[in-house]
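Example (one chain per record):
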Amino acid sequence: MIIPLFVYSISSCTRELNLTKEEKAYLKATDSIKVGLYPYYPPYQFINEQGKIDGIFVDYLKLIENKLGYTFKKVHYMDWSELIQDTRTGQLDVILEIQSTKEKENYLTFFPPIFSSEHVLVTHKDKKEKFLKNYLDKKFILPKEYASTEILLQKYPKLSITTVSNDLKCLELLNEGTYDAYIGPKALVYYLLTNKKLTNLRIRSRVNLKYEPGIATSKRDPKIKEILEKVINSISREERDEVMNNWLFTSVLPLYEQPKFWLYLSLLSILVLSLIAATNRYLKYQIRKNVKELRIAKEKAEQSDRLKSNFIQNISHEIRTPMNSIIGFSELLSDENIKKEEINLYTSTIIKNGENLISIIDSIIEISKLQSKSETVRPVATSLREIIDEIEGLYRTKIEAKEVDFIINCNPDKELIPIVIDKIKVHIILCKLLDNAYKFTDKGFIKVIAVLADKSITMIIKDTGIGISNEYIELIFNDFERLEKDISQNLGGLGLGLAIARMNTLLIGGTLTVQSNLDIGSTFTLTFPYKPITNK
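Predicted structure:
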C-alpha cells in the first residue's frame, strides 16, 4: 500500500506560481536543465509496452513542466550507479526519483517525499522463515547505490550483501536460488512478481523500512533548487491526487473466480473443527491455571497472616518496653528521698521512652493510612535547601553523638531554586531512611546527597553500617517485615520504616532503590518528580 505524503500541500486550493524576473530570465537563457530518469522502478518509472518512459514520477514531471512552461532535458540511464556518478560530477542537474540518505545530502538537495511505501522481505518459496531476524546470517541480493541498501548496511553492518544494477535483476537471481533474500518496496515487488513471472518467490513479511522518494537537485546550481521549490509549492492537493490516482488502484476479482477459493473453503472447515478441539483443550488449561492461581493466592494470604501475627507479637513487646519504663521511673519519682541528679535521669528516661512510644504509634497510624489508600498528595512550595536544613537539624547532633560523621552534599547552584513537592511525605521518607541508617551504623559515616535535575530530585542516603545480605535485600520493603535472622532483631523496631518509605515514594510518583553489601554498608536512592516555580 502506498500512502501519499504531500507534505507541501496544506490547502486544496491551487497556489499561484510567482517566479521573479531573474528566475524567468534564467529559464529562458537555460535550455538544457538535465533531469535523470531511471525507468526500472515500476510503477514509479518504467518503460511501457510502446517503449516510452511512463509512471507516477514521469506524470509528476509533466505537471511541473506545464506549470513552468519549460521543458527539461530528460536523460535516460540504464545504470543507477552511473546516474549517481554524473550527479556527483555535476553533469546532471535534477534526479526525478530518489530517497534521501546522509551520504547523498553532501551533494544533493532533497525535496519532501511524494509518498511512502513500506518495504517487504522476499525469499525463495522453499524458505520457511518469515522474519528479517531469521535471515541476518544469510546472503542478500540488493540494488547498488540504493538508499535502502545504504540504510540496511548502516543498521546491520555484518549483513552479507551482493549488489547488482536494479531490482529486477535482484529478483531474477533470487528466483534462480543463487541468493537467500531481497528487500524492496511493496508496490514494486508486487508489480515485478506479477508481470515478470517470478513464480519461485514469496513475500514473507513487512520490514521496518520505508521507500520515501522525491525529487532532488544538485547543490552546484542553487537557482534550480529555488525554482523547483516554488513550483512544487504551487501544486495543489487535487493535482497531486490526480497524478497518484492514475496509477494506484486495485483490481478485485469476484470471490468465485479466484483459483484458490475452494482450497480456502476446505481449510476453513478444517480450521473450524480444529478450533472446537482447541477450545476444549484451552478450557482444561484455564481450569488448571485457575487452580494454580488460587493455590498461590492462598499461600500469599497465609504468608500475610503469618507476618501480621509476628507483627502483633512484636508490637506487644515494642509498646510494653517503653510503657514499663515510663511507669517504673514515674513511680520512682514519687520517692520523697530522691536526689536531684536522679530526678533528671528518671525524667530524661521517661521523655526518651515517651518519644519512642509516640514514634511506634505514628508508624502504625501511617502504615494504616497508606494501606487504606486514604493518603493524598499535598504539594507545597519549598526548596532543596529548606528540606536539607530540616533533616540536618533533626539528625546531626544525634548521629554525631555516636561518633559517626554526618555528611551533606547538595549542589549549591540549585539548592535555593523554588520547587513544588509534597514536602511532608518527602520528609517522612528521608526520616525513615535516616532512622534506618542511624540504627545500623556505629562507625564511619552517614552521607546525604541531594541533586536537583531538570524534572526530578534525587536524594541518596549512604551509610557504612552492617549492610544487608543478598538473601534479604528483596524483603526489606515488605510490610511488617523484619530480618529476624539478622542482627536487626536485637535492635528493636516494628519493621515498618522502609515499608512506609516505599509506599510514600510510590504515592508521590517516585522510585526507591537499594544497593547493599554485608558488613560494608547500604545506599538508598530516592528519585521523585517536582514542579518548578516560574516567575511571570
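Caption: The chain has a mean pLDDT of 83.
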